[in-house]
Design brief:
The protein has 13 helices and 14 strands. By secondary structure, the protein is an alpha/beta fold. It has a five-stranded parallel β-sheet, sandwiched between helices. It has a five-stranded mixed β-sheet with strand order 8-9-14-13-11. β8, α9 and β9 form a beta-alpha-beta unit. α2 packs antiparallel against α4, α2 packs across α6 and α4 packs parallel to α5. The longest helix is centred in the N-terminal third of the chain and has 23 residues.
């Protein structure tokens, strides 16, 4: 079941709610059995899935096969977790009738919420998308799931959804326990605003996640938003470390910076170090390494355009100097860029703390430890 317009949201949410009512009373053993059945169906998916995703995302097939295995493991891992009973958080406080005042018998446990809306990521089409950890945990907890398909890989999402719904049907549940929905911002807004929806899962940019968080908290009945958002993943290089192996460190850094065309959520976007001869040698080695890096095809045209726009916005600032660029590539590719600024300028420009999603690295030179500590104190929470 899918939709491209909010006008169909009402019927979709009704179907999801009905499926939830039938499923919520399933005990942990039955939920675990369903989780493993879903993992089995995903495991059966062969070359069609890998080839489809490769064409849609430009991600290499070796990476996709590894991510598929991780996704299968996630469903089985959640099955083990719920079967153990730990997620129920059972509490039993027996009555104490002899106490004054007496304590009544109190028994508590975690219960499913209802339909959950999941917004998957573009850079992990399996493990953090349609069949990702958010979907798996929601089903494990006894909820129904509505996945808003990411426009970067709609065919991949359809294959995954069909596998999940096949397993749900085989296990005797309503297939609308898992529904995918197509559409843009308007559709996502309608879903989050609807009173039937009880929580949101999101993986993506800070702007996207914050917008959903604000929507969810403005509702008459606010709901939780579990979001993994953008990060610059600051890397601090200490002076003692920079006294040796500068070339090796630089190669490791540049490899991490450009891995997957810089489209990993743990991409080290900002490197902070104190001026020294070691740092100078590191910069020279990193410059050469970046210049040798070929431009990689990005996940889709939108991400490529966003990368080029954000990178230009950074590098056009007079306080930032570009010290290296990688090789140019074909259309929708991400050219590696290494830039430099001072700690003073970094502290004075909040814009420099923004994520540039792609192979962009900013080296921040500090005069002393005090500047390094000031930068660390001023940074917001990071994934790494």
């Amino acid at each position: 079941m899918s939709s491209t317009a909010p006008k169909n949201i009402e019927s979709i949410l009704q179907a999801s709610s009905t499926a939830f009512q039938k499923f919520k009373s399933a005990n942990v053993q039955k939920r675990a059995q369903l989780m493993r059945a879903i993992a089995d169906e995903i495991e059966k998916l062969g070359e069609e899935l890998i080839e489809t995703t490769h064409v849609e995302t430009h991600l290499p097939t070796a990476r996709l096969n590894g991510e598929k295995g991780r996704t299968i493991h996630q469903w089985r891992l959640y099955a083990d977790a719920i079967e153990s009973g730990m997620v129920l958080d059972l509490r039993i406080d027996t009555a104490l009738t002899g106490r004054n005042p007496p304590r009544v018998d109190i028994r508590k446990m975690m219960a499913p919420l209802g339909p959950i809306v999941i917004f998957g990521s573009s850079n992990f089409p399996y493990a953090f998308s349609t069949a990702g950890g958010d979907s798996a945990s929601a089903i494990a907890a006894g909820n129904s799931v509505i996945v808003k398909v990411h426009p970067a890989h709609p065919k991949t999402s359809k294959i995954m959804t069909n596998a999940i719904r096949t397993a749900i049907t085989k296990e005797g549940y309503d297939p609308d326990l898992f529904i995918e929905v197509e559409g843009g911002i308007e559709t996502g807004t309608a879903l989050v605003n609807h009173s039937t929806v009880k929580a949101v899962g999101f993986t993506g940019s800070y702007q996207g996640g914050k917008a959903l968080y604000d929507l969810a908290n403005k509702r008459k009945d606010p709901i939780p938003v579990f979001a993994e958002m953008g990060s610059i993943n600051p890397l601090f290089l200490m002076p003692e470390k920079l006294k040796s192996n500068q070339s090796e460190l630089a190669a490791q850094y540049v490899d991490s910076l450009t891995l997957g065309s810089g489209q990993f959520c743990t991409n080290p976007g900002v490197l902070i170090a104190i001026k020294s001869d070691g740092l100078q040698q590191f910069k020279e080695a990193a410059t050469k390494a970046v210049q040798e890096k070929p431009a990689g095809k990005m996940l889709h045209a939108g991400i490529a355009a966003s990368y080029n726009s954000n990178a230009s916005s950074m590098t056009e600032h007079p306080a930032i100097t570009v010290i290296a660029k990688g090789k140019e590539g074909e259309e929708h590719s991400g050219q590696a860029i290494l830039a430099l600024t001072s700690a003073k300028e970094f502290l004075a420009n909040e814009h420099f703390c923004g994520e540039v999603f792609g192979p962009f690295g900013l080296i921040v030179e500090c005069e002393n430890f005090e500047e390094m500590i000031r930068i660390a104190d001023g940074l917001e929470g990071q994934l790494t």
